[in-house]
Amino acid sequence: MTASHASALAAAAREATQAPLSRKLTFLYLANDVIQNSKKKGPEFTQDFAPVIVEAFKHVNRDGEEGCKKQLGRVLSIWQERAVYENILLDQLSQVLYGAKKAKKRSYEEIRPADEDFASQSSPTEPPQTAELIRALQELENAASGDSVLCQRISSLPAEVHDMSLLHSITDKESGERLSRLVEEACMLLADYSGRLAAEIDDRRQLTRTLMVFLQSQKDGLTQNEQKLEEYKRKLARVTQVRKELRSRLNNLP
User: Fold this and answer.
1) Which chain positions lie within coiled-coil regions (predicted)?
2) Has residue 22 got a pLDDT over 70?
3) Residue 54 CB neighbour total at 10 angstroms
4) Which end of the chain is more exposed for a tag (fewer CB within 10 A), N or C?
5) Is the dihedral of CA 127, 138, 112, 28 positive or negative?
6) What's the Rg (C-alpha) of the chain?
7) How would residue 239 be classed by pLDDT, with cut points 50, 70 and 90?
8) Smallest Cα–Cα separation from 53: which of 82, 83, 28?
């Protein structure tokens, strides 16, 4: 690890421990983005994060709630499937989240199922309850894709923060530092929104699978009720015939 990397990580660690929970998750989303993108060019950042990532997970998990653990679990699942770190480190992160019991490693298909694979998903023993579906749909009402305020903030980011060709306009240290602050804020904003979108995508995929199970259970119920209806119609016809015959016999009795 270079001295500059060590200094930057130390500063980030200090800020992360003092930040509110939502900000701490943003730091982890940002770390995930840096780790995965830098891995294509070299292992330096991935290796630099390794000594502190377990403590970061512990810190966020300790201060967070069940929803926070769910977000951390998504990040861990991606790292497991893409073999971002060695199994020893991944197991440590798994123990932080799930305790001594090792978390089940999800397959790539479970993380990112293709549309044609939905039908082949194994159905649970019991179909989902209507209340469960309503709750999942209500949660999506506050999903990242519907955050118009944040989308507006992102669309209003100045061109300088994402267009390297405009860096030549920096002529003095003051303007450079001002742009640096804007870039840092934009980076955190986009990392946080990307993390929320990734979580929303995962939730929508899970909801799609749940809806397919629910729809299949409704189709099965419809088929069964149609069969029952035909059966009861036949029984009603027989009972009606018996009633008609019985009345005819009673009318003929003395």
Assistant:
1) 215-249
2) no
3) 15
4) C
5) negative
6) 29
7) very high
8) 28
Residue 120: both structure tokens together: 């082949």
**What are the structure tokens assigned to 205, written together?**
């995929």
Distance from C-alpha of 147 to C-alpha of 145, rounded to nearest angstrom: 6
Token pair in block for residue 138: 């209500």
The residue with tokens 């060590």 is 6
Residue-averaged pLDDT of the chain: 75
Phi, psi for residue 60 in degrees, rounded to 5? -70, -40
Main-chain phi, psi angles of 131, to 5 degrees: -60, -35
Separation in Å, CA 243 to CA 230, 232, 237, 248: 20, 16, 10, 9
d(CA 206, CA 214): 12
Are residues 33 and 198 in contact, defined by beta-carbon separation less than 8 angstroms? no
**Position of tokens 């479970």?**
110
Q: For 155, phi and psi rounded to 5 degrees?
A: -70, -20
pTM of the predicted model, to two decimals?
A: 0.47
CATH class of 1-112: mainly alpha
Nearest Cα residue to 56 out of 80, 37, 77, 75: 75
Using DSSP, state whether 40 is helix, strand or coil.
coil
Distance CA 36, CA 85 (A): 11
Instruction: Give 10's pLDDT tier (boundaries 50, 70, 90).
Output: low
Identify residue 188 by its one-letter amino acid code. M
The predicted pLDDT at position 105 comes to 44
**How many angstroms separate the CA atoms of 47 and 41, rounded?**
13
